[in-house]
Write a structure and sequence with these properties.
alpha+beta; two-stranded antiparallel ribbon; 2 helices; 2 strands; elongated
Length: 62
């Protein structure tokens, strides 16, 4: 008999402990509110993915 151990993670928005399984419809978030807040932050461009500088940009900084 195999017993599955529930995986519990911190909500990325508020830090509250939340289960990371199919019973949590908002995973990895703890609620619809936290999920919406995170989506809003991406839409408002508060999160950015860094881009490596291109050669043309580096040459222009001399």
């Amino acid at each position: 008999m195999t017993i599955k151990k529930a995986v519990v993670v911190d909500c990325p928005a508020c830090g509250r402990k939340t289960p990371f399984d199919s019973s949590n419809r908002w995973r990895p978030f703890c609620s619809q509110r936290c999920k919406s807040l995170d989506l809003g932050a991406w839409a408002a461009e508060r999160y950015r993915i860094a881009e490596e500088a291109k050669e043309e940009q580096l040459e222009g900084k001399d």
